[in-house]
Amino acid sequence: MADDNSFGKAGRILIVFASFVIIVAGIRDATPILVPMLTSAFIAVICSPTIHWLNAKGIRTGIALVLVISFVSSAILFVIGVAGTSLNDFVEKLPQYQLQLIAQRQEAIGWLKERGIDVSDQLQQTSFDPSRVLVYFRLLLSGLSSLFSNAFLVLLTLFFILLEAAGLPAKMQRLPGAEVRLAKIHLALKSIRHYMAIKTWISIWTGVLIAILMKIIGVDYPLLWGLLAFCFNFVPNIGSIIAAVPAIALAFLQLGPLAALYAALGFLAVNIVVGNLIEPRMMGRGLGLSTLVVFLSLIFWGWVLGPIGMILSVPLTMTAKIAMETSDETKWLAILLSSDLPEEGDGVSPVGTSTTA
């Protein structure tokens, strides 16, 4: 009998694992549709308080929707315009950057020879191909532009989500167990809205500071570097590094090693002040996710959904965690994802078992 129970538990685990694999495969296959919808959903979460605020000021819902959609549309057009203009300008200036790099290389080789360091002829003849920088630059911008490649679909979906959100509470109240459902949905939306709102403001300030810094140093495309710093600040752990590398590389390519050093120190200072001092104070009690879970969710959602998955990795994981907390059978998974230790007597049950006798 014990063997049958063990086989039953193992079978359930295998079924759950197989179901998870099938679901993930389906999500990856449906990425072209899911990415615009997820983008719209999380923009709607951020924008919904603005709709309520405008309603409280006496502005009708329809007019408030038009104002919010107009603002989001302008922001998306700004992003597309800055990214496209910067990339085209970079292509035109590529020969100039190549000549500057060759001159810097010759200067470095001469400096080494003056100090008795012999540089091989093969190393001297090896020319750096700036097109490699262009490939990385294009890859970065394509990842950014892919977030807004379906701008019309994103805006249209956002409009209907915000329009439907006005009547959703009334519909939910007519469902069985409405109070419990509404409380759980409110908790999920409140946590995600808190994170996204604060992260958006922190990212805006990060982007503004980086743009000003690059302008002061004299690096080309300061608006682009500020925009990249804003977008990749949503990516946990490694986002600031991704945004800093191309800016520092261009500072070296355009102005030399000293400018690259200033740029690197500037990125470091902004991320220390904003990311390590200001953001933790504004976030309050934190995300409720362990550091390891945040990092693994970044890798997982980035692999499943691409760049937008990296940006939305924390909100998506928070949503999954809150959903798992609603069921006794999955509550143990929510506790594993959490950064807090479970309290004694919280009724957590092992896999496939119930807390009730």
Task: Report on the architecture of this protein.
With 357 residues, this protein is mainly α. It has a domain at 287-357. 80% of the residues lie in helices and 0% in strands. The protein contains 15 helices and no strands. It has helices at residues 2-29, 31-56, 61-114, 121-125, 131-146, 151-165, 168-173, 178-217, 222-232, 239-255, 257-283, 291-305, 307-311, 313-325, 331-337. It starts with a helix and ends in a 20-residue tail after the last helix. 25% of the residues are buried. The model is unreliable at 347-357 (pLDDT under 50).
Distance between the termini: 20 Å
Strand count, sense and barrel status of the largest sheet are: none
Mean pLDDT: 75
Low-confidence stretches: 347-357
**Secondary structure tally: strands:** 0
Measured on Cα atoms, how large is the radius of gyration? 25 Å
The number of distinct helices, counting runs of at least 4 residues, comes to 15
Class of secondary structure makeup = mainly alpha
What would you call the shape? globular
β-sheet strand percentage: under 5%
Q: What are the secondary-structure elements, in order, as H or E?
A: HHHHHHHHHHHHHHH
Roughly what percent helix? over 70%
